[in-house]
């Protein structure tokens, strides 16, 4: 029965100490009713007159760019914002006037077609967003009827109003921002997953007010419920909420702890009741929704410059032609008859010799319209079509599909396809991007003894650095044979647990000398956490919902080592553990107890006779504290503080008599860090009863405060409690590298791409991960910048903030200058391949990124082969990305998987999101999403290169064909004394870009491959063509334009001369404009399509169809159009069937023009390929000559590399060879010296 479930009792108000507490009225709540705090919500009365007068936004959410009413005007505005489209609109309007050299319909129809195509594309994309909106708005939720019946009915989300009472079930999303009233737990606690908001997968705890949870237990309790909420106005802050609840005579403060945000999900809680506070676009998640930054590729920006250049050429040609025309017109006075056919004596203003200046002005306008064919009208829409099709190929690439998570690659925007082929620097997150973010418990140090025999990837890498693969085998043997124990590797793989040591597993820890310490260590792992167990009813297997992968690994490790946390009951959490005395498994119940019962010693009564452990407080982990603690009462009535945290925080909190194992533990922690493991220190202490009572009192007061210094008060109180600890040991978990990461980095490095790692991990871990993935190698000189000097530490301890900042700034600047000087000196005499790596921590980075020093930092970093920024905050990641992008002027790509990477992804030219385990925030903010880092290799080296090469060739060809066509118009007009007479029929002019030359260029942009994917992998330095923009340089663009000019000259003059004295019928009629124009147009169609044939590197049946089909389409059109009545076809009436096709000169002229127009390009490409080949042309020769498997020839081509490789496994092998060579040289020298001494 709805609302009839027995409510679960779980007293967490004392456990989640930082959040779940009552608030008291202080500074923040005094603002209620003032500016920014004027919202009033009438709970359970959405239809009241007072509520309706406020007219709050509905819950309908729209993410579309257009509405049905705004689509046409808004999309038209978007289209005509492009300067080329606006230009064609102006010329189209002018075509309606007598100034036009062609008919208005023939000018406006192609423009309408192009604009319509773009608008259809916009509409299709927006319809996809509309469908998502419909799906979200039509979700259903249970809503209270608002009457006295107490019945909840299902309604669609879009129907919700401010003040409605809703009931949300387990695993459902919250439909609006809700005020938590009660839940299935007695303390009104619920668990919320905020992955859609902040990308975090860990669960958050929310708790309603006692005043509402005590009276609202089931559906029927809402019959008479009425309350008023006064709170802040809608805003984007996810982490604050200020308001008051007026319930009967009570006035209760509200905080963010009572706010359930839209699009977060209810987890591990059967149901909650909530009052709608913010709806629709007033909700915090929508308030945070900002349009992603507008990104345009460098090629597109350069294309705009070409368009402007073409405009300048058009206006210059029109200006020159109008001057000549004015002069010629003025000279028609006085009875001259050179242009008698214009009838200047009877002419209107266009040819009136008496008004030659005005005639020249009118001619200028006419010429601007006539020369508009220099600008490719279909360029933008063709590129958009091509990019969409390229994105489809990327999305459907089976080699970038990750079967384990069913995640294909997803190009979320098609605007940046060609930019993928121009990346100079990759800035990468580490955890979850280079690594799996799936932690495995692999080693630990307990009571000064190291346990765990696993070999990490970093250790294998270190062994390779020390002496080759043989050492790895020796390392495994040594670890396993230690103490004559053979590790048991049988059994299925356990997620989160990769620990092998028979001294500890299978209950053998009870036989160890320090078994009591081991027991306490494992209890800390099993108890000191906030994980939530979930038991599979079918199998009984227990899984855990934890705040982080590290914490999940600890709980799993405790379970596998005999301390299983298996449930949260109504009274607490239950743990099965091995008894130290008997070695048998027993159950212990760690009870939650309210602080108000603390003084009732001896009066407590529990249902179980087992030894009782009462958890009193959980002091949660955060990035500032870097530790987490729980306070428990053990079976003997003792109060214990169990704690775990970072080594730099925990060691300084140890008591004098608690440092027994410190020296050995420090050694192990350093070893674990060197092995690339993440470490935490575990410790405990006994707490005095009076001390705890005092702590509890002060702590409750601090966390109930809503003043600005609330957090600092809490930190101060917990800091006092978490001291004088007794060291137990340390944990070490491994975040493994993703499959293929070293190979991917090696290929990217061979391609000349610089790789920076921006991570929040500490320096030692980051360095060793750098070695494991071949970003670093042994011979690299490491330039390390940090502030771990004794002088800086002394200043920090003294608390002199200003002095410390100044000294830190000076130290960072000095270290950067020293590093730059080291690089400037260049490689040593003994090693010309010397490379440098820059490693800088977050503190130093703060000063390095200041305006006065960031250029020094950039100069130093760009001079290094590898850059690793440790302990970086999300803001620092974004600032570093911005600095690289703006400072180098090169294309940057950022790749990450978490919410903390969003700023970096949006700041980079290209943002790539990894769809990993940290939620979808990075993916939703990215331009392209992939499932694994290794797919970046194919995305850049194959798809990136292809897209760059295709788009570059496509744009160059577009301008080539339009210049060819446009120059023939100009030459003909010059031939007719600039009389603004077009060489071609109106429809010939209009359809050239739309039908007779557009499809081949689209096929080029979609299907062409200068080299195959196999050769892209084999010769990764081919990628540098895009980085250096060799295929879209001004030299290449001007070259294609010049080729168009040559083709136009050949077409015009050969056609003019060949047709000048030809007879076209038995009556002796010579060629007129219609015949000359038809012949020239035929030659243009043939030449531009044959030029495409010469330009294509990879033919498919699609290219054959569109190229030869375009030529055939011209002849078909000419026959059909010529058969239409002369009133429509005008001078094209039967021109082909009756004049052109019967004349042998027409076909011969076409053949001669094709030969002479294409010979210059053919000769140029032959000479270039033979004597000045580009890198892709050399690879084409390898493929053509069948020498792709000839090692010597391939290596010769590799030697033409644009950049030496200093990063990656290839560079490491090369360095190893050089070391070996130097070793043998030195050995030979020593041998010779010894021989001489013997003689």
From TrEMBL:
The segment(s) forming the P-type ATPase C-terminal domain are 923-1173
Q: Which InterPro entries match?
A: ATPase_P-typ_cyto_dom_N (IPR023299), ATPase_P-typ_P_site (IPR018303), ATPase_P-typ_TM_dom_sf (IPR023298), ATPase_P-typ_transduc_dom_A_sf (IPR008250), HAD-like_sf (IPR036412), HAD_sf (IPR023214), P-type_ATPase_IV (IPR006539), P-type_ATPase_N (IPR032631)
Q: How does it sit in the membrane?
A: Multi-pass membrane protein
Q: What catalytic activity is recorded?
A: ATP + H2O + phospholipidSide 1 = ADP + phosphate + phospholipidSide 2
Q: Which residues form the P-type ATPase N-terminal domain?
A: 41-107
Localization: Membrane
Annotated transmembrane regions: 306-327, 360-381, 958-975, 987-1007, 1037-1055, 1075-1098, 1105-1124, 1144-1164
This protein's GO CC annotations: membrane
- Residues reported in the UniProt entry to bind ATP: 429-431, 551, 621, 644, 678, 759-761, 871, 877, 900-901
Q: List the active site.
A: 429 (4-aspartylphosphate intermediate)
Q: What CDD domains does the database record attribute to this sequence?
A: P-type_ATPase_APLT_Dnf-like
Q: Which SUPFAM superfamilies match?
A: Calcium ATPase, transduction domain A, Calcium ATPase, transmembrane domain M, HAD-like, Metal cation-transporting ATPase, ATP-binding domain N
Q: Which Pfam families match?
A: Cation_ATPase, PhoLip_ATPase_C, PhoLip_ATPase_N
Report a single Gene Ontology molecular function: ATP hydrolysis activity
Keyword annotations for this protein, in alphabetical order, are:
ATP-binding, Magnesium, Membrane, Metal-binding, Nucleotide-binding, Translocase, Transmembrane, Transmembrane helix
**Single biological process term from Gene Ontology:** phospholipid transport
The cross-references to NCBIfam families, in alphabetical order and at most eight, read: ATPase-Plipid (TIGR01652), ATPase_P-type (TIGR01494)
Q: Show the PANTHER family listed in the entry.
A: PHOSPHOLIPID-TRANSPORTING ATPASE, PROBABLE PHOSPHOLIPID-TRANSPORTING ATPASE
In the record, the note on similarity to other proteins reads: Belongs to the cation transport ATPase (P-type) (TC 3.A.3) family. Type IV subfamily.
Listed name of the protein: Phospholipid-transporting ATPase
> Which organism does this record belong to?
Brassica campestris
The top of its lineage is:
Eukaryota, Viridiplantae, Streptophyta, Embryophyta, Tracheophyta
């Amino acid at each position: 029965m709805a609302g009839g479930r027995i409510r679960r009792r779980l007293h967490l108000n004392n456990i989640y100490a930082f959040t779940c507490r009552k608030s008291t009225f202080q500074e923040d709540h005094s603002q209620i009713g003032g500016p920014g705090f004027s919202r009033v919500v009438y709970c359970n009365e959405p239809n009241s007159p007072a509520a309706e007068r406020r007219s709050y936004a509905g819950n309908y959410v729209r993410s579309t760019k257009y509405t049905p009413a705004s689509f046409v005007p808004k999309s038209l505005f978007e289209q005509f914002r492009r300067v080329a489209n606006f230009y064609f609109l102006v010329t189209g309007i002018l075509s309606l006037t007598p100034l036009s050299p062609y008919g208005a319909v023939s000018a406006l129809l192609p423009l309408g077609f192009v604009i319509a195509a773009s608008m259809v594309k916009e509409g299709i994309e927006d319809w996809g967003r509309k469908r998502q909106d419909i799906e979200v708005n039509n979700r259903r939720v249970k809503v209270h009827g608002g009457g006295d019946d107490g019945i909840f009915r299902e309604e669609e989300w879009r129907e919700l109003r401010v003040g409605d009472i809703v009931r949300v079930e387990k695993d459902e999303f919250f439909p609006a921002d809700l005020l938590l009233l009660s839940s299935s737990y007695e303390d009104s606690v619920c668990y919320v997953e905020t992955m859609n908001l902040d990308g975090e997968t860990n669960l958050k705890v929310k708790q309603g007010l006692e005043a509402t949870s005590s009276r609202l237990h089931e559906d029927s309790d809402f019959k008479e419920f009425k309350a008023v909420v006064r709170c802040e106005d809608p805003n984007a802050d996810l982490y604050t909420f200020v308001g008051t609840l007026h319930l009967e005579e009570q006035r209760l403060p509200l905080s963010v702890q009572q706010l359930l945000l839209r699009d977060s999900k209810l987890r591990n809680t059967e149901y909650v009741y909530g009052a709608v506070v913010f709806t629709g676009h007033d909700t915090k998640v929508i308030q945070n929704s900002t349009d992603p930054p507008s990104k345009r590729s460098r090629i597109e920006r350069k294309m705009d410059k070409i368009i402007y250049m073409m405009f300048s050429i058009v206006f210059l040609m029109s200006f020159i032609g109008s001057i000549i025309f004015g002069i010629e017109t003025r000279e028609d006075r006085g009875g001259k008859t050179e242009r008698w056919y214009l009838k200047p004596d009877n002419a209107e203003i266009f040819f009136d010799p008496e008004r030659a200046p005005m005639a020249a002005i009118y001619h200028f306008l006419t010429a601007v319209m006539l020369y508009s064919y220099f600008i490719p009208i279909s360029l933008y829409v063709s590129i958009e079509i091509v990019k969409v099709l390229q994105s489809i190929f990327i999305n459907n690439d089976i080699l970038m599909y990750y079967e384990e998570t069913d995640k294909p690659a997803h190009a979320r925007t098609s605007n940046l396809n060609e930019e993928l082929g121009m990346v100079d620097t990759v800035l990468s997150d580490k955890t979850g991007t280079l690594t799996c973010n799936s932690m495995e418990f692999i080693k630990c140090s307990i009571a000064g003894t190291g346990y765990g025999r696993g070999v990490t990837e970093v250790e294998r890498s270190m062994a390779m650095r020390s002496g080759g693969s043989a050492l790895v085998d020796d390392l495994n043997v040594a670890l396993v044979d230690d103490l004559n124990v053979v590790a048991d590797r049988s059994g299925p793989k356990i997620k989160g647990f990769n620990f092998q040591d028979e001294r500890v597993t299978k209950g053998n820890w009870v036989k160890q000398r320090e078994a009591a310490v081991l027991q306490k260590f494992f209890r800390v792992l099993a108890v000191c956490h906030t994980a939530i167990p979930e038991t599979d009813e079918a199998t009984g297997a227990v899984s855990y919902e934890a705040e982080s992968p590290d914490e999940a690994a600890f709980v799993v490790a405790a379970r596998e080592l005999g301390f299983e946390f298996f449930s949260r009951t109504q009274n607490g959490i239950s743990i099965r553990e091995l008894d130290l005395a008997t070695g048998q498994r027993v159950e212990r119940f760690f009870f939650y107890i309210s602080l108000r019962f603390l003084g009732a010693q001896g009066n407590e009564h529990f249902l179980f006779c087992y030894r009782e452990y009462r958890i009193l407080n959980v002091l949660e982990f955060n990035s500032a504290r870097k530790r987490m603690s729980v306070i428990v009462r053990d079976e003997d009535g003792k109060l214990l503080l169990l704690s775990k945290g970072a080594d730099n925080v925990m060691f300084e909190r140890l008591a004098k008599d608690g440092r027994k194992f410190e020296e050995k533990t420090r050694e192990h922690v350093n070893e674990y860090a060197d092995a690339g493991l993440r470490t935490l220190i575990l410790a405990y202490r006994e707490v005095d009863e009076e001390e705890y009572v005092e702590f509890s009192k002060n702590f409750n007061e601090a966390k109930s405060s809503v003043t600005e210094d609330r957090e600092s008060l809490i930190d101060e109180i917990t800091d006092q409690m978490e001291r004088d600890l007794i060291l137990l040991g340390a944990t070490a978990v491994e975040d493994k590298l993703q499959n293929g990461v070293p190979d991917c980095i090696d290929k990217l490095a061979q391609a000349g791409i610089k790789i920076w790692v921006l991570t929040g991990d500490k320096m030692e871990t980051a360095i060793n991960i750098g070695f494991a993935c071949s970003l670093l190698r042994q011979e690299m000189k490491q330039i390390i910048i940090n502030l771990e000097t004794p002088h800086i530490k002394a200043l920090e301890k003294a608390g002199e903030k200003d002095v410390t900042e100044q000294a830190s700034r000076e130290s960072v600047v000095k270290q950067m200058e020293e590093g730059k000087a080291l690089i400037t000196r260049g490689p040593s005499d003994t090693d010309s391949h010397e490379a440098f790596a820059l490693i800088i921590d977050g503190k130093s980075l703060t000063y390095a990124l200041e305006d006065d020093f960031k250029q020094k930092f950039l100069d130093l970093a760009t001079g290094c082969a590898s850059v690793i920024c440790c302990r970086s905050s999300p803001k620092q990641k974004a600032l570093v990305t911005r600095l690289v992008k703006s400072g180098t002027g090169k294309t940057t790509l950022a790749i990450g998987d978490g919410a903390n990477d969003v700023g970096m992804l949006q700041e980079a030219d290209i943002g790539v999101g990894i769809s990993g385990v940290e939620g979808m925030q990075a993916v939703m903010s990215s331009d392209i999403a992939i499932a694994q880092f290794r797919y970046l290799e194919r995305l850049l080296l194959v798809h990136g290169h292809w897209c760059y090469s295709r788009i570059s060739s496509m744009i160059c060809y577009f301008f080539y064909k339009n210049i060819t066509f446009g120059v023939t118009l100009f030459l003909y007009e010059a031939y007719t004394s600039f009389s603004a007479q077009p060489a071609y029929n109106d429809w010939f002019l209009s359809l050239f870009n739309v039908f007779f030359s557009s499809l081949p260029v689209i096929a080029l942009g979609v299907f062409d491959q200068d080299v195959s994917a196999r050769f892209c992998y084999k010769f990764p330095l081919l990628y540098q063509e895009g980085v250096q923009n060799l295929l879209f340089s001004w030299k290449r663009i001007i070259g294609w334009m010049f080729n168009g000019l040559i083709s136009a000259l050949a077409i015009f003059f050969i056609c003019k001369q060949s047709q000048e004295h030809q007879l076209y019928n038995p009556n002796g009629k010579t060629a007129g404009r219609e015949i000359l124009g038809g012949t020239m147009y035929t030659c243009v169609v043939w030449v531009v399509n044959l030029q495409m044939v010469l330009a294509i590197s990879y033919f498919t049946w699609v290219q054959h169809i569109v190229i030869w089909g375009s030529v055939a389409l011209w002849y078909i059109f000419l026959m059909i159009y010529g058969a239409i009545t002369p009133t429509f076809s005008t001078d094209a009436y039967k021109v082909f069937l009756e004049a052109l096709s019967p004349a042998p000169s027409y076909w011969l002229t076409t053949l001669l023009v094709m030969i002479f127009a294409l010979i210059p390009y053919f000769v140029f490409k032959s000479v270039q390929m033979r004597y000045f080949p580009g890198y892709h042309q050399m690879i084409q020769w390898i493929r053509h000559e069948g020498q792709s498997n000839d090692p010597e020839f391939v290596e010769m081509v590799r030697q033409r590399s644009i950049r030496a490789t200093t990063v990656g496994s290839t560079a490491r092998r090369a360095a190893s060879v050089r070391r070996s060579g130097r070793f043998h040289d030195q050995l030979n020298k020593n041998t010779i010296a010894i021989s001489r001494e013997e003689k």
